[in-house]
Amino acid sequence: MIKLKEEWKQLSGKYKCPFCSKEFSKNGICSHIWRTHDNGKDFKPSLGKSGWNKGLTKDTDIRVANNGKSISKSMIGVKQSPLSEEHKNSISESMKKAHAEGRAWNIGMSRWNNEPSYPEKFFMKVIENEFDDKDYEREVPFHRFSLDFVWKHKKKVIEIDGSQHERFEDQIKRDKEKDRLLLEEDWQVLRIKWKDFYHDTKKWIKISKEFLDS
What we know:
It is a single chain. This protein is α+β, with helices and mostly antiparallel strands. Among the domains are: 1-48, no CATH class; 118-213, VSR Endonuclease (Endonuclease, Chain A). The chain has eight helices and six strands. It has a four-stranded mixed beta sheet with strand order 3-4-5-6, with helices on both faces. The protein has a two-stranded antiparallel ribbon with strand order 1-2. The longest helix is centred in the middle third of the chain and has 16 residues, at 85-100. It is extended and about 70 Å long. The chain starts with 14 loop residues before the first strand and ends with a helix. Mean pLDDT is 75; it is low at 41-52 and 102-113.
């Protein structure tokens, strides 16, 4: 049965999935893991229960009407606050520079705060507790990509791949191109599927250490 772990909790108050790093409410995270990642088959989410407002409208129920008003209020001002010309010009110049430097491909996709994902935090603890060689760097720029964990003095890279690396064609192509560029420049790369590492940690710790020591 899936048990909620406090280490999944983010500063926002939501809980991050250890498999795909998506965030959910306290009530939704376990159901997500059970449904999406086929983990914890004994867990039985509430099935067949409809929402309290199913079949109700703002004309027939005051709660629905009030809920709609709350949403409308939250949107007030969104279209009434256009960007200043100075702000627009600043964004335009930033975009031009990003295109010129080949960085515009991932606008809207980057983790701007560089906050490590749950799998990365997990692996960082493994390195600290299990690895002899802790001289690594994280999120190292490489061409138009970034590398998860890099041992520059050994020219070795370890990538921790979440489920999106298997599910999305664009991500698969990016990974292949990244690996090709690494090999062309005499880097060695070890890719580890997060779900494999999570379920058989000892095995993948051993594989990772052997990769670095070879």
